[in-house]
Amino acid sequence: MAEQTIALEESWKAALATEFDSSYMLQLKAFLLTQREDGKRIFPKGSEYFRALDLTPLADVKVVILGQDPYHGFGQAHGLCFSVRPGVRIPPSLVNIYKELQTDLGIAPAKHGFLEHWARQGVLLLNSVLTVEESRAASHQGQGWEKFTDAVIRKVNDDCDSVVFMLWGSYAQRKAAFVDTSRHLVLKSVHPSPLSAHNGFFGSRHFSKANAFLEAHGRTPIDWTLPANPEAV
After folding, report:
1. Of 39, 122, 188, 202, which one has the greatest count of Cβ atoms within 10 A?
2. Going by CATH, does the domain composed of 10-217 fall within 3.40.190.10?
3. CA distance 129 to 149
4. Which residue numbers are catalytic?
5. Helix (H/G/I), strand (E/B), else coil: 186
């Protein structure tokens, strides 16, 4: 993992220095090296493990959206939760996110699933686990990533003011249960997956609520409209 820390965005590199030096991260690095030596294909590629942090510096975080694992299909994952590369079929949960955006803010669904435009505005699109083996969902759970991303969330909670946490599903709600609701806005709903979206994600209006909170606290709201050409981000 040392090669990724060199390129990591500077504010996160400083904030998480003790995590990278910890025994669990050294064990995680050894696990990933062994996986590669065994010929396993790991997603996303190494330079994108920390893409969410690279695109959204600590001081710029306005919204946190938590996912669980990267997509495990070839060519999908690129380091941002719910997001896929340009040209990749939009996953079902993201289709539902777009539907709610349209209901909430009147934004027509994008023709692609590339969410870097959000990340560059301060939306931290963070998975709990940052790597996965191809075609094996949840294959890297319990190897140390969860401790690392807990530390990321804690840094946002402690060092930032007036952040919106969108916690979709019980997993995300448990993971961020310690967030200080006297300083931040915590929005909760079921997960946007097709299995649960109709049980409270649709109609939750989290996007307009997030922007109203940001504006009320003197912060620029998020432009949730994605560019028609994802390569132009």
Report:
1. 122
2. no
3. 7
4. 69
5. strand
